[in-house]
Amino acid sequence: MSAEIKSHLTDLLTQSLALVAPQTPASIIALERPKQAAHGDWACNVAMQLAKQLKKNPRELAQALIAALPASPWLERAELAGPGFINLRLNPAAKLEAVRNVLAAGAGYGRGNAGKRRPILVEFVSANPTGPLHLGHGRQAALGDALCALLEAQDWKVTREFYYNDAGVQIDTLALSVQSRAREQRGEAVSFPETGYQGEYIREIAADYLAGKGDPGDLTAVRRFSVAALRREQDGDLAALGVKFDNYYLESSLYTDGKVEATVGALTASGKTYEQDGALWLRTTEYGDDKDRVMKKSDGSYTYFVPDVAYHVTKWQRGFTHAVNIQGSDHHGTVARVRAGLQALNTVTAAGIPLGYPDYVIHKMVTVMKAGEEVKLSKRAGSYVTARDLIDEVGRDAVRFFLVSRKADTEFVFDIDLAKSQTEDNPVYYVQYAHARICSVLAQWGANAQTLGSASLAALTLPRELALAQRLGEFPEILAEAALAFAPHAVAFYLRELAGEFHSYYNAERVLVADEPLKLARLALILAVRQVLQNGLALLGVSAPEKM
RNA sequence: GUGCCCGUAGCUCAAUCGGAUAGAGCACCAGCCUUCUAAGCUGGGGGUUGUGGGUUCGAUUCCCGCCGGGCACGCCA
Q: Are residues A436 and A524 in the same domain?
């Protein structure tokens, strides 16, 4: 495995360092993949790192380290370069190791064990049940689900959770909006609530309610019906995206279970609260927030902040010593508050919740462009691009791949016209096409692909073949780093590159050649490429079609 | 005004805990299908990484100032 080769090279350098500079800890040795092929397969900058403290010339130091390197079956040569880099070049056998490993591990290739079977809770989407999911939610769903898959591949025990805000004022607004539309449809003269939701879907819910012989005067019934309808709607949106949650946590349950009361009690006992203007405040500024927060309003009700803290306490109490929240940047203000609330609780409950708990992935908004103009995502105004609309237009694979292929903290411009009119230019097809091409070649060969696992790879000598093999070897590192950084976009970029190298190879060389050993070796290589494409696409929730 | 985030090719975006000559795609230009899928390939032009300093062998990356954009600054969620 590539990881084995990397640790092997590290080991060689460690031995060399022990001879050249015995006092130096080996932990300083770091290997990286150079951007340029001319700089070898791996590069080490240890000589430059040590030059100052050893008071030696970095190039001389590097030369000494190279001279002291033990012999190795994988290493072709080591050379001094630039200001003091040690560039390591692998022999073909070392590069082809990856192909063997991919075929041996199959769908499990790329997995790591950083999670060590520990539980982690990932909360995402958590949309209010007051409308269908829009593209911002779509981005969060694609991001969150891919992140969960990545964490699972690193051996974390992942729970996907959706926090359901079913207890707030927005639900009242929803009920009043639907009630008003229902009365309107009955021919009554009513004034629509000023802050009500304007969307067409409100009218539809009202019509459905009336069709079911519902009484517009019964606000409780209207509310129950509306929430249920929108929950079904959101479930449908998520299903269309292919995202499934393990658990829905209801905000209302925090009240009925007494957890909100308990949290307020504990926070009061912590001595971090005070009363002012008839309200109860928490000194969140003691924990890095920029102003203190009201917990209990002067009318006796709680602010949303309290159930939010209570909810996160349950995460910890449920055994999730690791938790990640995926949120839009419009809610980034809650980060300091929630963490502050948890830290204040620590002082009385001795729960020992760590300072940075929970982790956050903050993503920026999705700007939607249509006909060269920005479409505002406003529920109230009613102009509304839903996740479902987009899936219907460009397909689930494209939507998911596209939404996950950018860093979370960059703003996302989704041009609907571009996505509609130029679906062929979407990168997802490029990657899927590589997969389909490989399937086609294997089908024409016709024999059992299982046998390729033991094929000799010695015939693979072209630079393109070795580069492709080496690219396969990077996959486990890409996944490990992407999981660690909560950055699924790295997987999308990797797949784009792998597919690109495959397409070039496919165009330049023929796989089904007369030379039998060469044919089998090339088949083994492309079979391994197909496996990695499959594994990568699966992580992103994108299909790997056999035909296109 | 204060806090957080972002600023990289015409456009959309990358850049491995500070690494070597900052990379892809789209668009544009010129080529490649009697041969395994042309949703593909090959080649080309495109940059003072917003800006000014600092840190050091070395900065897109770290620190400070400024400019521009987004978001948040409720006893709303």
A: yes
Per-residue pLDDT tens, chain A, 548 aa: give them: 456 788 899 999 999 999 998 888 888 888 998 888 888 899 999 999 888 778 888 899 999 999 999 999 999 999 998 889 999 999 999 999 999 999 999 999 999 999 999 999 999 999 988 888 988 899 999 999 999 999 999 999 999 999 998 887 888 899 999 999 999 999 998 888 888 888 888 999 999 999 999 999 999 999 999 999 999 999 999 999 999 999 999 999 999 999 999 999 999 999 999 999 999 999 999 988 888 999 999 999 999 999 999 999 999 999 999 999 999 999 999 999 999 999 999 988 877 899 889 999 999 988 877 766 777 655 444 456 788 888 888 889 999 998 999 999 888 888 777 776 656 567 889 999 999 999 999 999 999 999 999 999 999 999 999 999 999 999 999 999 999 999 999 999 999 999 999 999 999 999 999 999 999 999 999 999 999 999 999 999 999 999 98
Helix (H, G, I), strand (E, B) or coil at A366: strand
**Which nucleotides along chain B are within 7 A of a protein C-beta?**
2-7, 12-17, 19-27, 35-42, 56-57, 70-77
Distance A467 CA to B42 C1' (A): 18
Say if residue A534 is in the same domain as residue A433. yes
Beta-strand runs (E) in A206-267:
247-250
Which of A28, A55, A90 represents a domain boundary (last residue)? A90
Q: The tokens of A496 are what?
A: 């784009």
Concatenated DSSP letters for A389-446?
HHHHHH-HHHHHHHHHSS-TTS-EEEEHHHHHHTGGGSHHHHHHHHHHHHHHHHHHH-
Asked if the peptide bond before residue A358 counts as cis, ω within 30 degrees of 0, the response is yes
A432 and A523 co-located in one domain: yes
Residue A400 resides in a domain: no
**Residue A80, domain CATH:** 3.30.1360.70
| Domain of A492, in residue numbers | 426-540
Same structural domain for residues A179 and A86?
Answer: no
* Residue A338 is assigned to a structural domain of this protein: no
Query: Which of A66, A90, A114 is a domain's end point?
Result: A90
Q: Is residue A106 part of a domain?
A: no
- Give me the A residues in range 387-446 that sit within 7 A (CB) of strand B: 405-407, 409-413, 422-425, 427, 429-430, 433, 436-437, 439-441, 444
Count: domains in chain A: 3
CA of A32 to C1' of B54 (A): 28
- Helical packing angle, A58-67 and A2-20, nearest 10°: 110
Rounded CA separation A307/A311 (Å)? 6
**Paired tokens of A439:** 């399937």
Angle, in degrees to the nearest 10, between helices A219-241 and A396-404? 90
Q: Is residue A392 part of a domain?
A: no
ipTM confidence: 0.95
